[in-house]
Every structure is written in C-alpha cells, then in structure tokens.
C-alpha cells in the first residue's frame, strides 16, 4: 500500500487518478478504475446534455460501489454549454469528487462545497495552482508540458513544475502529464506530489471503449509522435501526430486563421477516430506518455502493477542506492 495525503483525504486506496477525457472517459472505464482502487473521472461534456450525464453517472454507479468523480472542463466558448445544469446533475447524483479544469473554478466551487463535493482543480501553472488553493479547492492536479490535451503556454515539464507546485501549495498535489508506470509514480512522490493523474495510459486499457486501432497505435507510437496545435492562437493542445494535425500546424504557420481550419479540427471528426479506428480522420488527443506504453492491460492489472512495482523500486533499487540491503529487488 502507498498511503499519501491524497489517499487519506479522498478515501481512495491507491494514489492513482484517471483524469477526465473527452470522448474516452465513460462509465465502464471510470468504474474499472474505481474497482481497481484508483479514482476515475467521467467527462461531463462527453454527454450531450445534463440529463445524459445523469444517466451516465447512474450507469457508473451500477458498475461500482467505490467512489468516482466527474470532470467539468470550463472553456471560454462563444456558445457555452449549460455549466450550471451540468453542475446540478453532478450534485444531485451524489458524486463525491469533481475535477475542474480549463479556467478558474470559482463559479462552481461554493455550490460544490455547499453540497459536500470535494474539488480537485487541474491546471498547468504554479500561479493558477496557488490561486485555486486560495479559492479553497481540496487538491490540485498540475499538468506538465508532456500532457495530453492543453498544456498551457509556459512549456514547463513536470520535472520542474511538480516540485515548484509542491513548494508553493499546502493542499494535496497530483502530478499529471507523462506518467504511465511505477517509475513515474515513484518520481512524482519524490518530487513532492501525493499521487499521479494519468490520461493517455488509461486510454490503452481493456475497459476504455475506443477502437482497437487507436489502442494499438498507442502501443506502437513513441514519445515523439504528438503535435502541438493552436500555438499561434495561444490555446495549445497536444494531440496525436497524423495527417490532420500536421496540416493544421502547417496552415497556421502559413498564417491561416481559426475559421480556415475550423472544419479540420471539428470535434465530430475527432470522435470518429475513436469510433471507427481511422487514425487520420480527425484530431485526437494523446500525450508523450504513449512512448512508455507497451501493452493493453485491464485497469485492475495496471493499477495493481503500478503500485506493486513502485513499492519494489522504493524498497529495492532506491534502498540499495543508500547501501542498505535491498528489500525486494535483486
Ligand atoms: C483523449 C484525452 C482527452 C482529454 N480530455 C480532457 C478534458 O476534456 N478535460 C480535461 O480536463 N482534461 C482532458 N484530458 C487530459 C487528462 O485529463 C490528463 O490531464 C492528461 O491526459 C494527463 O497527461 P497524460 O496523458 O500524459 O497522462 C484529456 C486527455 C486525453 C488523453
């Protein structure tokens, strides 16, 4: 067992979190993570309406008795989804933990706390983490430059971002971005984090309901096979390297405006990749951690292995460095 401030405060067996993932974090995956003793987050906005989210939460509750959460990603858009209605669905469904991301969580925090829902805010800079702690969030998940999705614009990798955040915060801290195995978990703990959030690694599990071609690609791809799109728009996103992402980068470099590439990056095209397995159909999200993925285990196998091997590294290889008898490793 690895016990940290995170496992104690949130009542989760292992310090391993599956972050919210648009189009990927659905009930079977989230329930499998919960049943494995980790903390999984459903993606609220994957559900087209707040009522659909209620149904998805109920489906997850049927699949597990353990705690799980919902990710609420709040992005500035021209026609925003009904966030307050999604929030209400989360609260009324009895979900105990929420992962907020995308922007300042202030608008939602008081309501969640008034109803006993704990909030983990995910962000990509120390200054936003400190702000979130001042607002009263229960924990912070900090996403390094390696991460899938939106790494922000500062380009600070986890090796610097995690200890910098740990120094600045008093609430429990999750290290996110680039983590895929026990070595990452031990490193995160050494850097001052209380656990890890993984996205990309959980895509390549038996219970993640994406096409097998995508999972196979995650095993085959290496750490270089991502693209950073939307840099020029200061809305950077790390996505899979494919024909579409390369075209988007090239056209923005040539001076195209967002309107010129809107069709290429449409979510409707991206979701087709996960459904059909056609890897070049649209933009799909993935992180550098794919370079560390070698197999497609069940969530139970993945979580058990990560925790067991982390203990072996700590009591074996690391203890041996100090010249003490190695506990488990040879
Ligand atoms: C397919 C995919 C979709 C994602 N969608 C979201 C999202 O909608 N909201 C969010 O806050 N994070 C999203 N993320 C980010 C993850 O929650 C997590 O922070 C990130 O994957 C950590 O980096 P890693 O992929 O290197 O583990 C997504 C990640 C992936 C892989």
TrEMBL record:
Pfam family, one: NMO
Spans traversing the lipid bilayer: none
GO molecular function, one term: nitronate monooxygenase activity
InterPro entries referenced in this protein's UniProt entry, alphabetically: Aldolase_TIM, NMO
Origin: domain of life: Bacteria
Assigned keywords, A-Z: Flavoprotein, FMN, Monooxygenase, Oxidoreductase
Protein name per UniProt: Nitronate monooxygenase
Species in which this protein is naturally found: Streptomyces fuscichromogenes
């Amino acid at each position: 067992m690895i016990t940290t401030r995170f496992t104690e405060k949130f009542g989760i067996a292992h310090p391993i979190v599956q972050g919210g993932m648009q189009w990927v974090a659905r009930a079977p995956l989230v329930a499998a993570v919960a049943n494995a003793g980790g903390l999984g987050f459903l993606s609220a906005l994957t559900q087209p309406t707040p009522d659909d989210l209620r149904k998805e939460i109920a489906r997850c509750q049927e699949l597990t008795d353990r705690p799980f959460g919902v990710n609420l990603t709040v992005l500035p858009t021209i026609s925003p989804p009904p966030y307050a209605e999604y929030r209400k669905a989360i609260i009324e469904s009895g979900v105990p933990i929420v992962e907020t991301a995308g922007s300042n969580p202030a608008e939602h925090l008081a309501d969640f706390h008034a109803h006993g829902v704990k909030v983990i805010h995910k962000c990509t800079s120390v200054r936003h983490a400190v702000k979130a702690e001042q607002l009263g969030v229960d924990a912070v998940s900090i996403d390094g430059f390696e991460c899938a999705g939106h790494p922000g614009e500062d380009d600070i990798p986890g090796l610097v971002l995690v200890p910098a955040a740990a120094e600045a915060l008093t609430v429990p801290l999750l290290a996110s971005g680039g983590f895929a195995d026990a070595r990452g978990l031990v490193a995160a703990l050494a850097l001052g984090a209380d656990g890890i959030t993984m996205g990309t690694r959980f895509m390549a599990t038996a219970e993640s309901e994406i096409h097998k071609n995508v999972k196979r690609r995650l095993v085959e791809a290496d750490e270089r096979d991502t693209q950073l799109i939307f840099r020029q728009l200061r809305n950077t996103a790390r996505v899979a390297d494919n024909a579409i992402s390369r075209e988007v980068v090239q056209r923005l470099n040539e001076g195209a405006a967002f309107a010129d590439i809107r069709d290429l990056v449409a979510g409707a095209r991206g979701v087709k990749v996960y459904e059909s397995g056609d890897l070049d159909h649209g933009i799909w999200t993935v992180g550098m951690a794919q370079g560390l993925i070698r197999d497609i285990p069940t969530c139970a196998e993945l979580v058990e292995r990560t925790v067991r091997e982390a203990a072996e590294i700590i009591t074996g290889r690391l203890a041996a460095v100090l010249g003490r008898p190695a506990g488990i490793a040879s």
